[in-house]
Amino acid sequence: MDEASFLAGYDPRAYPSVAVTVDVVALTIRDGKLCVLLVERGEQPFAGHRALPGGFVREETLDEAALRELAEETGLTSGEAAGELDRVHFEQLRTYGNPGRDPRMRIVSVAYLAFAPHLPEPTAGSDAAHAYWVPVEEAKDLAFDHDQILADGLERARDKLEYTPLATAFVGTDFTISELRQVYAAVWGEELHAGNFHRKVLSVPGFVESTGETAARGGERGGPKAKLYRAGDARLLHPALLRPTREDRVR
Amino acid sequence: MDEASFLAGYDPRAYPSVAVTVDVVALTIRDGKLCVLLVERGEQPFAGHRALPGGFVREETLDEAALRELAEETGLTSGEAAGELDRVHFEQLRTYGNPGRDPRMRIVSVAYLAFAPHLPEPTAGSDAAHAYWVPVEEAKDLAFDHDQILADGLERARDKLEYTPLATAFVGTDFTISELRQVYAAVWGEELHAGNFHRKVLSVPGFVESTGETAARGGERGGPKAKLYRAGDARLLHPALLRPTREDRVR
DNA sequence: CCAATAGTGTCTATGAGACAATATAAC
DNA sequence: GTTATATTGTCTCATAGACACTATTGG
Predict the structure, then answer these.
(1) Which residues pair with residue A230 across a beta bridge?
(2) Which CATH number goes with the domain that contains B30?
(3) Which residues of chain A make contact with B56, given a CB cutoff of 8 A?
(4) Fewer beta carbons within 10 Å, N or C terminal of chain A?
(5) B108-132: per-residue pLDDT in tens?
């Protein structure tokens, strides 16, 4: 029986109540580490545990709900700070709806993935005082099934770095090739050969384009001033930047 | 405010009622064409239109709901025919929840993608009498946002053929390289060079393994008897079988 | 000066794809 | 026999990655 004929004959409110929420895996890079935005839970269940930011879906699209939740948790809801959210890349990750994933009632949660260049630390005193960035390797024992959601989000992020220009969502509008390489290193958790990476990025059509400008200064410990680039118009990278040591992932 | 603290303070039943359904994009190959399973709608809205099979989620996981719906629509619910479903590859596609996607109420639908070797035509007289396989290029003007869901499913399927052994889900347990090539041709909608495809498939570790057997007979119009293979243990293809003419998809 | 980094050059191994060649089986 | 198909061979070009080298800048 299809959805509609079912609907025509039944009142859905007669069914056990189901709630729909969004949860957001928001990733950024701070101090060379890949970090995820977490909130502190003060109440049962999972009091004292950390969780992904999220909340109920209102009269809005799922995408809007996810963006709203991120804005609320980061405190970037107004003023010039709200503009920061414009550069955040958003995409739906996956939906989690196992019975029992929330001990109180049936909750179906649509998880989103967000990639941010460098959002500020949520400031104390705001609504978001209980939210903060945590290096992903320290984000363990999250509430509900959020460990799984985070793991799925990280896997997606690592995969998409290979064949999309997603990495540019983690840096400013103007960036050096080294900065881009550090994004890959942080997300993949391994160093990349600077020379080969440099040549490869420039060889992918539409990945980056030169601004003609040069960085204000060299590296912290010396080195020439790097050229600046901005994101190109490619939506897919071809050829892709395959990550090393993918043999493990094959079987 | 996160999901849980919100829950603690609010009765979700006070919110506008939201229903959760699953819709299934079930694909198979019949007569060399990629086909999708559709159901005929007899009632408003969208009476006379076709739709993807789907229905409400019950006290079960989302995956179970999708599998159940497919079983009901294909009539493969009992006996030896039910075993056919064991070889169906299932994966979650995406969730659709825009307000207004169903004109009657807020419905959030979790879409699934199913790849089947060769399911029988749903038999008349069963519950599934109103369901049938349709070549994807003829599947237009579907109910609700199902055109979009189908398009997303096809895009996913085409992508996954590149880097996963998904194509083996469309053929029997034993198959020839030519049969595998015809799967790629049907899903990608373009012919592939037989010689290069052959060598490439065999060069990917874990994609296929020889059975040692040979097909009972040659091609319909002549040719040698092909060797038989079965799916290997690879979960990802490396190197990938990149599809031709991907330049269009880059920008 | 010294150390670190940006950027380029070179070499090798591998894969993609065009094309050709050979062998086998249906009709 | 004729034709289509399975399978293998060969050649060329592009790319990945290892490694080396030069130039530039901060300290």
Answers:
(1) A209
(2) 3.90.79.10
(3) 3, 6, 10, 12, 15
(4) C
(5) 999 999 999 877 777 655 555 688 9
